[in-house]
């Protein structure tokens, strides 16, 4: 007989949804003066988040520096060999110097190496690809990143909206038939690996029936023309299957987190009070219940961006989508460390950026975050 | 509590699925060789080029004429092995780091919490991918270590929060003020309280480990001589199974992955219902029945009175 | 069974200072400051205790009342070595207490024990009552032997009226009612034969119907074990019921202290008066025509973050004068009984002499 | 359906199957003058924007439309060179001096004239610094003196040693670069985004997913007159290109995935597939320097232990089984010794006997055992070839069923596989054993020991570390020193080599390699039968793609 | 205008009774039953409750924890949430405008709307939880005002809200504040102000002051009483603090185990309660001004609603229990003045029956009494 400790919601560390102050010791007069200062100091929460993200960014830069240097197989040698094999001649002295500077010259003190690395990075220079030498990593990423961002952002947001909306519906009146049907179903959906579902979808929709293209981000026969509607339409058409996959595996977790949150919220006193006030049901559902239930889901959205990128990376491989994921897998197969590192750095920065954007919106949504604990 | 937990239908289904796969992992290969009489490597020359499920090959053959079922059975072993091992490693790190941070407070906590946050905000798969890629051709153990070594941050955060709240709870303070030693408080008094968090976390890590391994294998990372679900999908995809319509080759491993994930979701859902009874679906059903019955009773009463 | 009630009589309760000997536990001018942040996130200092003198005597129950945040719990935790004073000292039987961890701390806990507010939280729900209590016996009397330990555990349960002990030994705290749990918690503190019991709102989480039993138990233990009890409460009526002395706290200071009946019937400090008039009294039931309390003008909680000269209560005080905030807070002591008050109001009565 | 049984000189059965699978009918259909080619590039499906094939990294596909070599190799006769940018060449001084005469009607696509300076520049960096003194390893430099250009159309190369065979690799792998563009650049790290070549193509647009190349009007050679542009798109992974060709989105693509003959050709009327063996061979190289494969008996037993015709059938891409020498029985028909003129067959009993005689046994675990020592074997392959991923498990299973030998099938990514092979850290590895390009190329590509450094370790281009018998070594030297027109002599030397390979079994030939290609005749027709042409219709071989473009014509509706 | 002064006039018990006699019925509850549906069985937390409430009456409801006070209150306001359900009974509401009484227990949510807040409003125990944390205080006032009086302009509603807030001593500028920016006591007062927003006939208060300090509690009570005196609404006031109820209520209902066991004026309950449970409960509060005597609590613990003892629920803890008490459930009957549900006093038994039972009890004392602990 053991009693699992109940999960203590307040204890879940940096959960901004926790009540900002549990001490009643707040004085009337002081409060009046405070309303202004609180508006000024309102973004302490954001400041804290920003500090966190900066730490993560710095850590990832350090990790990025450290990884190739402490992993088996020496990327510098790897790259020199790669060039030797390809060109039949060893790289020039200057090249070797550059390669070693970036990927670790065993003869140079680590601190100096780090300094070189940082200065290069500060210039926005991610180095050159080993596989596609001398193409710069920046160039490869610049070409791939927009596609990935497009996939990741749209699919995540779409999945979030669908899941949250359905969850709010189901959680408002749980236990109904739709709930009994959709909730277990979405539980199953959420456990489908994105890459496998993608495979099935490609197989069925592209190979078996040919309704959708099985590869690429836009119609090859169209030029990339950012002013032509055809180009956008074809890009949209090509992204239907990836979106479909990502939304199916993505929406479910929002659905049941929203559903559960909604059920809990509907039981909150303030929703009861809203009911007692005789407000119209619509208003209670949207303004009182859903809005509050939404907050944790929103935090979740911010935190899920990193994970969303993972799913996108895998899905890109299946849909042969010319994004970061394809670039990364290609680089991995060729052991193109510079590209792998650059991509990772990009992915981290992108996910941190999303986090921060989501956090900023969150601050607008939840006034409590504008207060300090 | 445990009993109540085990009585929930969702939990039972979830645990049953995991149990079935565990059994498959233990006895599958044996079953494959002795009962089916095949190994994944064995080629059936009569069924080259992938033949659909049928009497000889219950799940069909691959494009090399290898038995898909045998692959599945052997693959289950690798996948579950990775799942369990990475979960053990991950849970260990989770608990040690989380509890350590939660209990020590002060600088140690701030440092460890920073580490946890950094890892938690990392897109771990990218990291996993790159680290695993460095150990090309890594065997299952190495893959497990890498997965376990990277996938601990989320859990550690929870454990830390839990320990912190436990540390602040009166009963730990009370134990201190009766002169109990710190070590004993942590290990004997507090640990059992964490089990409620650790056990679902462990399950979740198994599923995560299995999935991560599959994703890595799908991308071609890992030892190609160890059959696993991800490797099956990878081979099916690279060997044109989609175009050739050999669906029996890539559907079963994916389904297995789904089921594992589904099982842990179910268990966690059940756990939610325990800790938050408003979510209990059983209760919702009872409520529906009750309301129906009272409505019927009152209607009858009205009939009688009128 | 409960021993016959000791009638808490006015005359008995007033024991002259000199007769009481050295206090068992004593706080001398302690200050406790906590770091905190204000609403705008700026760091501030919370003066949880701001120069407190307090002494506990064997066989005496001392009540501590005051509004939320006035520092009552902080005193208890200070005595239990959970916090350490920012300045000032704690004396145990006249000796300054300066222990931090280890054996000395254990020895201290053999004398001073803390009873917590929430019996649902202060017992480990996963352990049997037997383990909870016998563990303490084992810690402090390691050489007792298993059999004696078990016997002692049973005795302790009996002491807190959990009879027969066998019925409770193998149960889990979750199986007991709140009052029973609080008794278990008390039994655990008694396992060490303490000289001092610090009870921090031991009944506030309990139902009205069982509160009194726990209070009575404390009162009886005071008699039978000759312990000193610090009883912390919000409820001045229960303080009156149980204690020999009452200390009234406000904003980290003991603003008034004295024999119970003295405080209840003739409070000097305006805050004590406010507290008394605000407390519900069954005798003033509606329809009784009893005189009603004064209107309560203002109920703001105190802010202890600012350094202030004089009296913290001054801005709420109906009788405040300019000197309340311009001069240092005085301390008046009664010549007739052991009554002290930190308010200029006492100046007018001949009975009081200024100490500070 | 199409096994390796079709020997002889005609193109393989699959060519007929595939080629004839596509039917063309009358009337021109609208194709905008654009030919869409699917190109396989590494795992990532984005083209790198770099056409510098002499640079440090992978370059974009389609560079065969820009870069051209002096000569090209005929597909009908293994070693014959066909004039291209070069009109003729002549060896003097016993093969030490080669004089090239160039065409005079060639221009670069930026309008500059193509001259001997360009050839001198290109060959100059290929052959490196001239000299006459051996280096510290005792190797002489290639060139005795700098390349001379007596006039705009003449190039004189002076070697230190006779090099009658050097033009073959030059024709295969070394296109001529524009001196006026490249001379001041760091060739290895120049990212060429605007290739200036002699070929028919001019780059008009580049995007990660599509390379648009227009056909220039002032091209010296000949391409289909209806062809206005070539667009190159990524082929994706297995299955992608097939379905795109089937839909008509892509017209032509190199390669063929397992089962292509059954699945792809049968899918639509207009789908076609061909397979031209090009004289190269894929085989399992055995480490002759270590482990059980050091023993020739083991090597021969392994070679005899698997039936490669079954394997060929399983692959379903219509390749043939080469002879035991590794040479294709079709292309090299005239050169092969009588006893080697048939595709290799299995001899299980013989294999077992060989093992037993040499004192080897196979233990319960399926490992080779000798003198109480057990040797587990692994077969390494590079994991990015779907055909081999399909066929090699079957080879492994053959050994298992025939000899009871359990060889671990180990597909590896290129970057693990390559170094392992180069360093000799393997027992069995699948690689190209005989190169295309004639008798000399066929046997020397991986057998000349080439040692170079990988980091601190030494690698060997002769992956199997096979030490050839003296006779074979002499035969090789003799070939390099025999003028190409003395065919009989060359055949004689070649047969010595054939015998050596057959006797020593340094590798197990698995499949005769070649050019596979899938196409649709929806928009373009004219991809010819192997018997009709003397080139390999492949997308990325210099000159071959140009030849193919010449033969294309719009499909008549 | 701030309501800070305590009510001046003090009625005697007779005056109170007369006033109640004079005023008309507002709420008439008959046989109300509320069940909680749980996995381990249905808990009947309100069992056959009969109550009448007059206009302007302050009815106190007291009882131990889990005696069903909140359940009753929620049922009266038709505010039960999962898993509670009103399973039987009628709640007749007599509108003050003289229209026909309605049984609000049978109305559905839409039909209830006109009663909510304009007729019946609530003050819940935890103000912190009852105010929606992410909606500004002002909106929480104006939305209810404008829902029930759509003709009122936003500005007018705001003015009304300001007036309400000032009435409870909160400055009007706090309307722009979020609830968490207010101290606990202020939140509680704001909630009370909110409950008066639509001039209700009945305010249901569930322990509105338990969470605050004594001084604050007193201040809030004063404000409630002053407002009540001025506006004349009726109050149902739930608390476990009997001594508080005695001070403020016209009549008090004592609940035990889901049943009302006694109803009477404060005066009667103070000095001559008819039910042993009431007496015991009354004794559990030590006096502040009367002489201190040793008191004792009620032996045993409150009944488990899933396994109620046979007969009177209190019989197992009752010092006066007779054999019949363990067999039959006593009815809540009118006595003069008030009502009682104890065989000793409710007149259910004839005099000889009672005497007989008493004799039987005294013959076998202590038999049914539980141990003190
Ligand atoms: N660990 C701590 N850190 C920071 N501030 C603290 C801490 N403990 C107490 N305080 C602050 O010290 C002041 C006094 O707190 P304390 O708990 O002693 O009050 P109390 O009189 O016991 O109140 P209550 O009646 O609510 O229990 C409060 O303002 C409180 O917020
Ligand atoms: N959500 C619920 N599910 C199941 N049982 C419940 C629920 N809420 C209350 N109960 C049960 O109903 C009974 C009455 O509860 P209620 O909250 O009405 O008591 P109360 O008198 O208000 O107590 P308190 O003084 O603690 O507020 C209790 O036995 C309680 O256990
Ligand atoms: Mg306290
Ligand atoms: Mg309640």
Class of the domain at 13-119 and 200-262 in chain E, according to the CATH hierarchy? Alpha Beta
What is the terminal-to-terminal distance of chain E?
52 Å
From the structure provided, what is the oligomeric state, counting identical versus distinct chains?
heteropentamer
| Largest sheet data of chain A | none
Strand content of chain E: 15-25%
| Protein structure class of chain E | alpha/beta
| Helix percent band of chain A | over 70%
Q: Mean of residue pLDDT of chain A? A: 76
Shape of chain A: globular
Which molecules are bound in this entry? Answer: adenosine-5'-triphosphate, magnesium ion
CATH homology superfamily of the domain at 143-334 in chain A: MetI-like
Strand residue percentage of chain A: under 5%
Shape of chain E: globular
What is the number of strand segments of chain A? 0
Derived structural class of chain A: mainly alpha
* Annotated CATH homologous superfamily of the domain at 13-119 and 200-262 in chain E: P-loop containing nucleotide triphosphate hydrolases
Number of helices in the DSSP assignment of chain A: 13
Compute the gyration radius of chain A: what is it?
Answer: 25 Å
* Biggest contact: A-B, 70 and 77 residues
Order of helices and strands of chain A: HHHHHHHHHHHHH
Report on the architecture of this protein.
With 306 residues, chain B is an all-alpha fold. Chain B has helices spanning 2-7, 9-36, 68-104, 106-121, 124-134, 140-150, 153-168, 170-177, 182-218, 229-238, 241-244, 247-275, 281-305. Chain B has one domain (2-275): MetI-like (MetI-like fold), CATH 1.10.3720. Helices cover 78% and strands 0% of the residues of chain B. Chain B is flat, with a radius of gyration of 25 Å. The mean pLDDT of chain B is 85. Chain C has one domain: 3-Layer(aba) Sandwich (Rossmann fold). In chain C, the strands form two sheets. Chain C has a nine-stranded mixed sheet, with helices on both faces. In chain C, strands 2-1-4-5 form a four-stranded antiparallel sheet, with helices on one face. In chain C, strand 1 and strand 2 form a beta hairpin. In chain C, helix 4 (129-140) crosses helix 5 (146-159) and helix 7 runs parallel beside helix 8 (208-225). Chain C is globular and about 65 Å long. The termini of chain C are far apart. The model of chain C is unreliable at 1-18 (pLDDT under 50). Chain D has 557 residues and is α+β, with helices and mostly antiparallel strands. Chain D has helices at residues 13-21, 116-127, 167-173, 179-182, 240-247, 260-265, 296-304, 308-315, 348-357, 386-403, 414-423, 438-444, 470-480, 487-504, 544-551; strands spanning 34-39, 71-73, 81-83, 86-92, 97-102, 143-151, 154-159, 201-207, 210-215, 229-234, 252-254, 271-286, 361-362, 368-370, 373-375, 377-382, 407-412, 428-434, 451-454, 457-460, 507-520, 524-525, 553-554. In chain D, helix 7 (296-304) runs antiparallel to helix 9 (348-357), helix 8 (308-315) runs antiparallel to helix 10 and helix 13 packs antiparallel against helix 14. Chain E is α/β, with parallel strands linked by helices and 373 residues long. Helices cover 31% and strands 20% of the residues of chain E. Chain E contains twelve helices and twelve strands. In chain E, strands 6-7-8-3-9-10-12-11 form an eight-stranded mixed sheet, with helices on both faces. Chain E has a four-stranded antiparallel sheet with strand order 2-1-4-5, covered by helices on one side. In chain E, helix 5 (137-148) crosses helix 6 and helix 7 runs parallel beside helix 8. Chain E starts with 12 loop residues before the first helix and ends in a 10-residue tail after the last helix. The model of chain E is unreliable at 1-6 and 367-373 (pLDDT under 50). Chains in contact: A-B, A-C, A-D, A-E, B-C, B-D, B-E, C-E. Chains A and B meet through helix 2, helix 7, helix 8, helix 9 and helix 11 of A and helix 4, helix 5, helix 7, helix 9 and helix 10 of B. The structure holds adenosine-5'-triphosphate (2 copies) and magnesium ion (MG) (2 copies). One magnesium ion binds at residues 72-73 of chain C. Chain E: This is Dipeptide/oligopeptide/nickel ABC transporter ATP-binding protein. Chain E: It is found in: Cell membrane.
């Amino acid at each position: 007989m053991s009693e699992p400790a109940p999960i203590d919601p307040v204890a879940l560390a940096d959960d901004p949804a926790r009540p900002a102050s549990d001490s009643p010791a707040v004085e009337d007069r002081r409060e009046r003066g405070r309303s202004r200062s609180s508006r000024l100091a309102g973004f302490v929460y954001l400041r804290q988040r920003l500090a966190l993200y900066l730490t993560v960014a710095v850590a990832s830069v350090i990790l990025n520096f450290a990884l190739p240097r402490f992993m088996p197989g020496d990327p510098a040698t790897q790259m020199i060999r790669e060039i030797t094999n390809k060109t039949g001649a060893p790289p020039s002295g200057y090249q070797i110097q550059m390669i070693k500077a970036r990927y670790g010259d065993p003869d140079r003190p680590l601190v100096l190496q780090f300094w070189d690395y940082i200065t290069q990075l500060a210039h926005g220079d991610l180095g050159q690809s080993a596989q596609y030498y001398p193409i710069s990593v920046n160039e490869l990423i610049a070409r791939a990143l927009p596609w990935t961002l497009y996939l990741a952002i749209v699919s995540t947001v779409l999945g979030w909206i669908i899941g949250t909306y359905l969850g709010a519906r189901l959680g408002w009146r749980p236990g109904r038939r739709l709930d009994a049907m959709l909730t277990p179903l979405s539980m199953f959906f959420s456990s489908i690996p994105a890459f496998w579902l993608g495979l099935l979808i490609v197989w069925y929709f592209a190979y078996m029936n040919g309704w959708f293209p099985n590869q690429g981000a836009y119609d090859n026969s169209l030029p990339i023309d950012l002013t032509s509607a055809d180009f956008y339409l074809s890009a949209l058409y090509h992204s239907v299957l990836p979106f479909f996959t990502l939304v199916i595996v993505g929406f479910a977790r929002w659905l049941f987190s929203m559903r559960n949150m909604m059920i809990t919220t509907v039981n909150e006193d303030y929703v009861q009070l809203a009911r007692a006030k005789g407000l119209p049901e619509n208003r209670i559902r949207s303004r009182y219940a859903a809005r509050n239930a939404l907050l944790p889901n929103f935090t979740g959205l911010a935190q899920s961006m990193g994970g969303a990128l993972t799913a996108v990376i895998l899905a890109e491989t299946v849909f042969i989508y010319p994004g970061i994921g394809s670039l990364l897998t290609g680089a991995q197969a060729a052991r193109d460390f510079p590209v792998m590192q650059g991509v990772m750095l990009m992915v981290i920065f992108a996910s941190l950026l999303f986090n921060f954007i989501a956090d900023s919106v969150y601050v607008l949504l939840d006034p409590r975050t504008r207060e300090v604990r | 509590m445990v009993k109540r937990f085990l009585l929930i239908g969702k939990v039972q289904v979830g645990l049953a699925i995991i149990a079935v796969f565990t059994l498959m992992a233990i006895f599958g290969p044996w079953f494959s060789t002795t009962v089916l009489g095949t190994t994944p490597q064995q080629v059936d020359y009569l069924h080259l080029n992938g033949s659909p499920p049928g009497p000889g090959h219950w799940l069909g053959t691959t494009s090399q004429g290898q038995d898909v079922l045998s692959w599945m059975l052997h693959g289950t072993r690798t996948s579950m092995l990775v799942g369990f091992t990475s979960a053990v490693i991950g849970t260990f790190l989770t608990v040690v780091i989380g509890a350590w941070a939660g209990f020590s407070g002060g600088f140690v906590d701030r440092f460890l919490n920073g580490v946890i946050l950094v890892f938690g905000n990392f897109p771990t798969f990218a990291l996993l991918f790159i680290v695993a890629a460095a150990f090309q051709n890594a065997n299952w153990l190495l893959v497990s270590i890498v997965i376990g070594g990277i996938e601990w941050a989320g859990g550690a955060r929870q454990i830390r929060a839990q320990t912190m709240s436990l540390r602040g709870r009166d009963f730990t303070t009370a134990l201190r003020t009766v002169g109990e030693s710190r070590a004993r408080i942590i290990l004997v008094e507090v640990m059992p309280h964490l089990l409620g968090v650790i056990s679902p976390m462990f399950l979740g890590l198994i599923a995560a480990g299995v999935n991560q391994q599959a994703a890595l294998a799908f991308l071609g990372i890992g030892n190609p001589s160890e059959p696993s679900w991800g490797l099956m999908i990878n081979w099916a995809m690279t060997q044109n199974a989609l175009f050739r319509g050999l669906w029996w080759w890539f559907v079963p491993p994916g389904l297995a992955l789904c089921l594992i994930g589904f099982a842990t979701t179910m268990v966690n859902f059940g756990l939610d219902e325990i800790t938050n009874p408003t979510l209990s679906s059983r209760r919702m059903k009872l409520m529906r029945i009750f309301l129906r019955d009272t409505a019927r009773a009152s209607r009858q009463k009205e009939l009688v009175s009128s | 069974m409960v021993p016959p009630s000791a009638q808490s009589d006015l005359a008995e309760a007033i024991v002259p200072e000199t007769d009481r000997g050295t206090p068992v536990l004593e706080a001398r001018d302690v200050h406790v400051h906590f770091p905190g942040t204000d609403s705008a996130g700026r760091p501030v200092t919370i003066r949880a205790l701001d120069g407190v003198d307090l002494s506990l005597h064997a066989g005496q129950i001392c009540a501590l009342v005051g509004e939320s945040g006035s520092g009552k719990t902080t005193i208890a935790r200070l005595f239990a070595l959970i916090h350490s004073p920012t300045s000032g000292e704690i004396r145990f039987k006249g000796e300054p207490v300066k222990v931090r961890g280890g054996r000395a701390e254990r020895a201290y806990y053999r004398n001073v024990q803390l009873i917590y507010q929430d019996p649902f939280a202060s017992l480990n729900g996963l352990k049997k009552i037997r383990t909870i209590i016998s563990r303490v016996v084992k810690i402090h009397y390691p050489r007792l032997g298993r059999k004696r330990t078990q016997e002692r555990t049973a005795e302790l349960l009996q002491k807190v009226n959990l009879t027969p002990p066998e019925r409770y030994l193998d149960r889990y705290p979750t199986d007991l009612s709140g009052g029973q749990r609080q008794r278990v918690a008390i039994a655990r503190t008694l396992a060490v034969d303490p000289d001092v019991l610090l009870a921090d709102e031991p009944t506030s989480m309990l139902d009205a119907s069982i509160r009194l039993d726990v209070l009575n138990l404390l009162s009886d233990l005071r008699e039978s074990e000759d312990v000193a009890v610090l009883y912390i409460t919000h409820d001045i009526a229960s303080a009156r019921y149980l204690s020999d002395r009452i200390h009234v706290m406000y904003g980290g200071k003991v603003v008034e202290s004295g024999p119970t009946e003295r405080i209840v019937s003739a409070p000097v400090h305006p805050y004590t008066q406010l507290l008394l008039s605000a407390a519900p009294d069954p005798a003033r039931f509606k329809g009784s025509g009893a005189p009603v309390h004064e209107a309560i003008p203002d109920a703001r909680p105190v802010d202890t973050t600012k350094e202030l000269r004089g009296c913290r209560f001054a801005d709420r005080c109906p009788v405040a004068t300019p000197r309340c905030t311009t001069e240092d807070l005085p301390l008046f002591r009664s010549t007739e009984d052991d009554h002290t008050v930190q308010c200029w109001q006492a100046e007018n009565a001949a009975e009081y002499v200024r100490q500070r | 359906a199409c096994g390796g049984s079709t020997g002889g000189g005609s193109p393989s059965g699959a060519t007929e199957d595939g080629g004839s699978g596509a039917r063309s009918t009358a009337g021109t259909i609208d194709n905008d003058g654009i030919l869409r080619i699917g190109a396989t590039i590494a795992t990532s499906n984005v083209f790198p924007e770099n056409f510098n094939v002499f640079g440090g990294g992978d370059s974009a596909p389609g560079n065969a439309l820009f870069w051209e070599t002096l000569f090209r190799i005929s597909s009908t006769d293994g070693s014959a060179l066909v004039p291209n940018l070069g009109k003729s060449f002549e060896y003097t001084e016993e093969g030490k001096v080669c004089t090239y005469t160039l065409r005079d009607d060639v221009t670069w696509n930026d309008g500059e004239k193509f001259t001997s300076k360009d050839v001198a520049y290109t060959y100059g960096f290929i052959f490196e610094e001239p000299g006459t003194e051996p280096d510290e390893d005792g190797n002489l430099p290639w060139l005795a003196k700098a390349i001379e250009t007596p006039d705009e159309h003449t190039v004189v190369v002076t070697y230190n040693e006779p090099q009658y065979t050097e033009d073959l690799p030059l024709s295969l792998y070394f296109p001529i670069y524009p001196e006026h563009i490249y001379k001041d650049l760091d060739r290895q790290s120049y990212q060429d985004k605007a290739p200036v070549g002699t070929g028919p193509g001019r780059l008009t647009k580049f995007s990660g997913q599509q390379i648009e190349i227009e056909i220039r009007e002032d091209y010296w050679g000949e391409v289909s007159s209806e062809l206005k542009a070539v667009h190159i798109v990524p082929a994706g992974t297995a299955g992608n290109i097939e379905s795109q060709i089937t839909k008509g989105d892509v017209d032509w693509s190199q390669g063929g995935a397992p089962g292509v003959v059954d699945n792809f050709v049968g899918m639509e009327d207009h789908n076609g597939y061909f397979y031209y063996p090009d004289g190269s061979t894929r085989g399992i190289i055995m480490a002759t320097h270590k482990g059980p494969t050091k023993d020739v008996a083991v090597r021969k037993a392994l070679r005899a232990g698997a039936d490669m015709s079954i394997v060929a059938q399983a692959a379903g891409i219509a390749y043939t089984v080469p002879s035991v020498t590794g040479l294709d029985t079709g292309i090299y028909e005239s050169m092969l010794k009588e006893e080697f003129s048939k595709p290799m067959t299995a001899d299980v009993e013989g294999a077992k006997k060989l093992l037993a005689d040499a004192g080897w046994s196979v233990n319960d675990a399926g490992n080779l055992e000798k003198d109480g020592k057990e040797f587990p074997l692994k077969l390494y392959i590079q994991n990015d070839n779907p055909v081999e991923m399909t066929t090699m498990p079957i080879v492994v299973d053959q050994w298992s069923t025939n000899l009871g030998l359990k060889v671990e099938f180990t597909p590896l990514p290129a970057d693990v596989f390559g170094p392992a092979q180069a360093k000799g850290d393997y027992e069995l590895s699948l690689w190209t054993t005989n190169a295309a390009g004639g008798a000399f190329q066929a046997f020397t590509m991986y057998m000349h020991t080439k040692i170079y450094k990988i980091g601190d370790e030494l690698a060997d281009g002769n992956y199997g570390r096979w030490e050839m018998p003296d006779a074979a070594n002499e035969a090789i030297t003799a070939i390099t020193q025999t003028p190409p027109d003395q065919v009989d002599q060359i055949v004689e030397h070649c047969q010595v080599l054939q015998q050596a390979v057959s006797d020593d079994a340094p590798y197990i030939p698995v499949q005769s390699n070649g050019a596979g290609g899938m196409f649709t005749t929806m928009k373009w027709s004219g991809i010819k039968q192997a018997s009709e042409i003397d080139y390999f219709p492949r997308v990325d071989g210099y000159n071959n793609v140009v030849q193919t473009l010449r033969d294309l014509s719009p499909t008549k509706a | 205008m701030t309501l800070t002064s305590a009510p001046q006039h003090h009625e005697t018990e007779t005056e109170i009774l007369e006033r109640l006699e004079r005023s008309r019925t507002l709420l008439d509850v008959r046989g109300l039953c509320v069940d909680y549906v749980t996995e381990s069985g249905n808990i009947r937390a309100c069992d056959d409750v009969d109550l009448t409430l007059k206009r302007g009456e302050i009815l106190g409801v007291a009882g131990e924890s889990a005696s069903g006070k909140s359940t009753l209150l929620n049922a009266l306001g038709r505010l039960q949430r999962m898993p509670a359900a009103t399973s039987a009974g009628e709640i007749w509401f007599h509108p003050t405008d003289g229209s026909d009484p309605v049984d609000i227990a049978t109305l559905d949510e839409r039909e209830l709307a006109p009663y909510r807040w304009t007729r019946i409003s609530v003050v819940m125990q935890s103000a912190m939880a009852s105010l929606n944390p992410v909606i500004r205080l002002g909106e929480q006032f104006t939305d209810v005002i404008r829902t029930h009086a759509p003709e009122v302009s936003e500005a007018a509603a705001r003015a009304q809200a300001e007036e309400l807030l000032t009435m409870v001593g909160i400055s009007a500028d706090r309307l722009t504040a979020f609830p968490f920016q207010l101290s606990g006591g202020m939140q509680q007062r704001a909630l009370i102000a909110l409950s008066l927003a639509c001039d209700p006939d009945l305010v249901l208060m569930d322990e509105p002051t338990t969470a605050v300090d004594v001084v604050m509690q007193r201040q809030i009570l004063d404000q409630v009483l002053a407002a009540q005196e001025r506006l004349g609404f009726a109050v149902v006031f739930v608390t476990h603090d009997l001594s508080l109820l005695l001070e403020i209520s016209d009549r008090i209902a004592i609940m035990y185990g889901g049943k009302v066991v006694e109803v009477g004026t404060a005066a009667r309950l103070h000095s001559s309660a008819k039910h042993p449970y009431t007496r015991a409960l009354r004794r559990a509060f030590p006096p502040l001004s009367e002489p201190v005597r040793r008191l004792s609590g009620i032996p045993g613990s409150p009944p488990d609603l899933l396994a109620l003892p046979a007969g009177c629920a209190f019989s197992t803890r009752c010092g006066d229990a007779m054999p019949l008490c363990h067999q039959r459930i006593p009815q809540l009957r009118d006595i003069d003045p008030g009502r009682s549900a104890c065989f000793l006093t409710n007149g259910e038994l004839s005099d000889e029956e009672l005497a007989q039972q008493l004799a039987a009890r005294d013959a076998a004392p202590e038999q049914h009494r539980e141990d003190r602990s």
